[in-house]
Amino acid sequence: MADVAHAPLTVHGLVLAMLGCFLAYDGWQYIAFVAGEVREPKRYIPLALAIGTGAVILLYLLANVAYMRVLPLSRIAVTFGGIDGRVAEGMRAHPELIRGPRAADTNLMQAFPGWVSKGGAEALLCAASPDGLSLALKVEDGTQRALRPALGAFLGRLGLDGSIFGPTPVRNSRDEVVGEVRTS
Fold first, then answer.
1. Where are the domains of the chain?
2. DSSP code of 167?
3. Considering all CA atoms of the chain, what is the largest pairwise distance in Å, rounded to the nearest integer?
4. How is residue 175 annotated by DSSP?
5. What is the CB-side half-sphere exposure of residue 121 using CA atoms within 13 A?
6. 149 near 183, Cβ under 8 Å?
7. Is 129 exposed, middle or buried (CB count within 10 Å of its CB: 0-12, 13-18, 19+)?
8. DSSP-based three-state secondary structure for 6
9. pLDDT tens digit string along 14-34?
10. Mean pLDDT score across all residues of the chain
11. DSSP secondary structure letters along 58-87
């Protein structure tokens, strides 16, 4: 793999990188101008914010339901199983570059030589074994913390030692362990 030269981090570079984010969320600052035109701003501004946020959440949930209807997990698994050989070789050679050293997909490739794996948004993990088995694992509520124990349990059903993947500790805001997520 070729060495990559990284540009130095500058304020100018950071602002340029964030420009797209600023433009994507443009409009939030106009609430101050609108508040002066609303009759009961203490009542209607929070109500409008709640309804607007709720509508966006509902749209995202409905979009995810539509995606899963159009492309079910079984089809995602089959598609991932057909990953290009060069890409799979690169993933196997450098699993830590996939999502970092503690990510489930990285740990899966490190623990089981020959496997390729990639996690994604909404707690989706796809993997393929060297003998042709492919899988897609999705946590229904979209949170990542249940993904590792679920993966460990699934690997156990395949006869593999998935104990490194679960249970996952649950921490509070002070980083104290207050529970764990495990399969039953």
1. 11-69, 73-181
2. P
3. 67
4. S
5. 3
6. yes
7. middle
8. coil
9. 787 777 776 666 666 777 778
10. 85
11. HHHHHHHHHHHHHS-HHHHHHHHHT--HHH
